[in-house]
Amino acid sequence: MPNARRTHTFSESVIREMTRVANQYGAVNLSQGFPDFPMPDTMKDAACAAIRGDINQYAVTWGSKPLRDAIVGKYARRYGMTVDPEREITVACGATEATAAVFLALFDPGDEVIIFEPFYENYGPDAILCEAKPVFVSLVAPDWHFDPDLLRAAITPKTRAIVLNSPHNPSGHVFSRAEMQTIADIAIERDLIVVTDDPYEYIVFEGEHIPIATLPGMADRTVTISSLSKTFSITGWRLGYAIASPERSSAIRKVHDFLTVGAPAPLQDAAAIGYGFDDAYYQKLSDDYRERRDYLGAPLREAGFKFAQPAGAYYFFADFSGLSTDDDVTFAKWMAREVGVATVPGSSFFRPDAPEGKKYVRFAFCKQRATLERAVEKLSRLRSLL
Ligand code: GLN
């Protein structure tokens, strides 16, 4: 008996596959975007205390009270945004589950969802799983801005939503206030929802992160999704959430309940204390990433890669066409095997069979200095191996 048709049109995550390739060749892993340095000690201690304190059974399905209250505090302090902890938050197993639950809860088969391309690879399968149609709007290289006319032209009577990921994975583009306002104007004019994906909101080097929900008229038509993974270097804890109007949240909560019941209870309580950290923590997080960006960026350019300087997030989306005429998958595998540095092939961030991605690879710089030093040393030999 064949597997369900919906599984035929997407493949396993290439990002996660490249971590396996890195391990196979013993390459420095700059592919999957997870930090290889420790998380804050106070949160580790809080997790141990929560487990020892017997917080080991299901939390409330839409999130433990301490974590929901901490999320409310975060949005009030940082963005002046009011969120109701009882009716508007759904805590999920990462932004990954939150996004899947939001798509399944809000989109019907045949609905169209606008996705800026290149894009984080989950959105395509998320759309396929709910039988919605992803409609791609190109971000324009080299600075990855979007053309409002292209966005308008992509909207049809079936369009339900625009997915907005800023800081953007893989390009590092941080959408400006003017760009956000244009998206908000179009959403209001065409009666669309905006679904945001904000895991890198604290990792911004130029510009600022603006939740589009805070723009006039947008609170009720935005679903704000974010994650604790990158903010606290806890990608394995699987904690994220969706903030939406009470009506939308009730649908999102139902889907979430039957997907996973809830995120890990002791980790939710431990993570809550993170949002109580003072500004110095967040400043240091961003400063440290800026240092890593600057440290790796220069040798990458010297090695012959071309890219826009990322204004946020922790990736270089690098054009390697000056180095090789191979396609991205061949080049990435060669890099992992011969140079000893693992990256993600650019085509993973484009529609299947799109030609545009084939000249890019993505480098993640969310790594400790020693890891980056090893990568830089290997990259210095790249040209001699061509
Ligand atoms: N968001 C990270 C990336 O783009 C991690 C992806 C994942 O494996 N969940 O690499």
Question: How would you describe this protein?
Answer:
The protein has 386 residues and is α/β, with parallel strands linked by helices. The chain folds into two domains: 5-39 and 280-385, Aspartate Aminotransferase, domain 1, CATH 3.90.1150.10; 57-274, 3-Layer(aba) Sandwich (Aspartate Aminotransferase, domain 2), CATH 3.40.640.10. It has helices at residues 14-25, 41-52, 65-79, 94-106, 123-129, 148-154, 177-189, 246-260, 265-272, 279-303, 328-339, 369-379, 382-385, and strands at residues 28-29, 89-92, 112-117, 133-140, 145-146, 159-164, 193-197, 222-227, 240-243, 315-319, 341-342, 344-345, 360-364. Helix 2 (41-52) crosses helix 9 (265-272) and helix 3 (65-79) runs parallel beside helix 9. Glutamine binds next to helix 1.
DSSP strand count: 13
Question: What are the segments in which pLDDT stays under 50 over at least 5 consecutive residues?
Answer: none
Q: Which strands sit side by side, in order, in the main sheet?
A: 2-9-8-7-6-3-4-5
What gyration radius follows from the Cα positions, in whole Å? 20 Å
- The quaternary organization reads as single chain
What would the average pLDDT be, to the nearest integer? 97
Based on helices, strands and strand pairing, what is the structural class?
Answer: alpha/beta
* CATH architecture group name of the largest domain: 3-Layer(aba) Sandwich
- How many distinct folded domains? 2
Order of secondary-structure elements: HEHHEHEHEEHEHEEEHHHEHEEEHH
Can you tell me the CATH superfamily of the largest domain?
Answer: Type I PLP-dependent aspartate aminotransferase-like (Major domain)
Please report the number of helical segments: 13
Task: Give the CA-CA distance, first to last residue.
Answer: 46 Å
